[in-house]
Design a protein that fits this description.
It is found in: Cytoplasm, Cytosol. The chain is an alpha/beta fold. The protein has 14 helices and 15 strands. It folds into two domains: about 140 residues, Aspartate Aminotransferase, domain 1 (Alpha-Beta Complex); about 260 residues, 3-Layer(aba) Sandwich (Aspartate Aminotransferase, domain 2), CATH 3.40.640.
């Protein structure tokens, strides 16, 4: 065996360091140049990071986050187990990057009938890591530096930072509440767009409008007339529509969800965003999709293939089986798409009664998991703080979770910075919860009521 002659390279380099005055314990030289990309400036804060931590620390009942605390349907869980345990070992490997073939095929078949279009599963459907990634792909694919994107307030909070990250300029237009008839609770239908105000937001710089119906956080289901107003403006100004429809099956009291892509002139300019998490009560699976004409989706595929590239195969297989079942049962009483909204409507009505009984004024939602309540009568609990930049509803929600153990989300989180204090006396609750969870929330509210009325 030959022995290396002379000192090792490591020994030689160590000697040089020591000779130059270094030691193995010396501190590292830190970078002084900025490392953060400019596109991240001003979007580092996130309402969910803060309030999820508060809920985990203080709450006994979490009605803040938008996920069910009940199980997905048995048929879906069984489909997942079958996919996981089946002898087809390829379900544990990569599948097609833009969507597992069985899933894109059934999605094209299912939604093609609803939209009145023949969808090509290989070009008109793309599977994503939840609806969140589908949204991100849209903004990255379509929005250039200086493009304007119209966002209807209140809006799901990721729209604004995603537009800004793409270099775009968000332009906000609010739904404005109209007072209900005497003796009636306000409905999400009472929050409406002003047609002239909406029209004024369109310009030659407008690239897209984001539509979320049913709307999170308000629960508003846009009517045909409202959608036709938006569609006419999109066609007139040659604007894209990014249609976030993740709560499409969760509509109540016979309300109809109308897909804007089915309106005249809209298929060619609309990308529809969907979610298996909301559809099948399995938010942790993170299976979503985008649908639209190939001329639009080809650009989403470019973003997808250069970022996430691929979604979990087994979850896609299980969701495909779930949709096959629902296609067979479509419109029938045993359909999960019929059963789930019935169950959730009962939960909604129960929470409406609980909040109304203690003096919070609920806005009855037409759809989604969510219910917004007016907290104006509770201002004595959390007095205003002079010169505070934090909206009142945010301070109230923090006080409520710390002192009452009940978690909710401030509505101001769903508005742009300039408008947060215009709607700062509302908080959002999620009612997609087990009966025991809603009962525990009611117990907290009733105790609170007794404390308020006791001498």
């Amino acid at each position: 065996m030959l022995r290396r002659a002379g000192p090792s390279l490591r020994h030689f380099l160590l000697e040089r360091k020591i000779g130059a005055g270094y030691s193995s314990c010396s501190s590292e030289v830190k970078m002084s140049r900025p490392v953060q990309a400019r596109r991240l400036e001003g979007i580092d804060k996130n309402i969910w990071v803060e309030f999820v931590k508060l809920a985990a620390t203080y709450s006994t009942v979490n009605l803040g986050q938008g996920f069910p605390d009940f199980s997905p349907p048995d048929f879906l869980k069984e489909a997942f187990v079958r996919a996981l345990s089946r002898e087809n070992h390829m379900l544990h490997q990569y599948t097609r990057a833009f969507g597992h073939p069985p899933l894109v095929k059934i999605l094209a078949q299912f939604f093609g009938k609803l939209l009145g279009h023949d969808l090509d599963p290989m070009t008109d459907v793309m599977v994503t890591v939840g609806a969140y990634q589908a949204l991100f792909c849209c903004f990255q694919a379509f929005v250039d530096e200086g493009d304007e994107v119209i966002i209807i307030e209140p809006f799901f909070d990721c729209y604004e930072p995603m537009v800004k990250m793409a270099g775009g300029m968000p332009v906000f237009v609010p739904l404005r509440p109209k007072a209900p008839e005497d003796g009636k609770l306000m409905s999400s239908a009472d929050w409406q767009l002003d047609p002239a105000e909406l029209a004024s937001k369109f310009s030659e710089r407008t690239k897209a409008i984001v539509l979320n119906s049913p709307n999170n956080p308000l629960g508003k289901v846009f009517s045909r007339g409202e959608l036709e107003l938006i569609a006419d403006l999109c066609v007139k100004h040659d604007v894209l529509c990014i249609s976030d429809e993740v709560y499409e099956w969760l509509v109540y009291n016979g309300k109809e969800h109308i897909r804007i892509a089915s309106l005249q002139g809209m298929w060619d300019r609309t990308v529809i965003i969907g979610s298996a998490g909301k559809t099948f009560s399995a938010t942790g699976w993170k299976v979503g999709w985008a649908m639209g004409p190939n001329r639009l989706l080809q650009h989403l595929r470019t973003v997808h293939q250069n970022s996430v590239y691929h979604c979990a195969t087994v979850a896609q297989e299980a969701v495909a089986q779930g949709f096959r079942r629902e296609l067979e049962l479509y419109g029938k009483p045993d359909s999960y798409f019929i059963q789930l909204p019935k169950v959730l409507q009962q939960k909604r009505d129960w929470l409406v009664q609980s909040l109304d009984a203690v003096g919070m004024k609920p806005i009855v939602p037409e759809g989604t998991y969510f219910l917004v309540a007016d907290i104006s009568e509770f201002k004595s609990n959390v007095p205003d703080v002079p010169d505070s930049d934090e909206p009142y509803d945010s301070r109230f929600a923090k006080w409520m979770v710390k002192n009452k153990g009940l978690a909710a989300i401030p509505l101001s989180a769903f508005y742009c910075g300039a408008h947060k204090n215009n709607y700062n006396h509302f908080i959002r609750f999620c009612f997609a919860k087990e009966e025991a969870t809603l009962k525990a929330a009611n117990d907290i509210l009733q105790k609170w009521k007794r404390e308020k009325t006791s001498p």
